[in-house]
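ok so for the tutorial part 2 we go from a plain amino acid sequence to predicted structure tokens. step 1 is just haveing the sequence, like this:
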Amino acid sequence: MTVPKQARGLDIKAFAQSGGDRQQEDRLADHPRLLEEASGRGADRPVRWRAVGQMRDAAGVAPQIWLHLMAEAELPLTCQRCLEPVDEPLAVDRWFRFVADEAQAAREDEDADEDVLVLDPAFDLQALVEDELLMALPLVPRHEHCPGEVRMEVTDPGFAQALADKPNPFEVLADFKRKPGGDAR
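step 2 — the prediction. this is what the tokens look like for a chain of 185 residues:
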């Protein structure tokens, strides 16, 4: 799927001023970092998202630029308990406020409930979608109830036999001392 130009170089200010509402369905393959988390599986799975822009009046300042982002996807990950595939649903519902520069963003982000981002006339909305879904990934993906028996130990069937066949080093030393010319001083 070709990514629409508007998602990669979006003028957020114009989008918010017009009350923009953009809805899109991508493929997981369109989000390479998410696809990497899925170990390359599920490239054709959908990533659905919607962005709504708006201008909000604030007391004593010019209207502020806001973006509401909602996104969802289901990633095929590996269960860390049973090591079998597990589909993890991801969902994002976040508000972002845009400011003029990095210094202002750093200053205001500490005290704000919303995320504060720097206004960019060619904003990459699709990268924001991917960033937010990446942050929604579970730290340890796992089934609520694993489909099969979870093995809690790993054994090598030949290990016990190999250990039994291995000569005891003290017996080897004793044999060495008993042999003629085996006097080790």
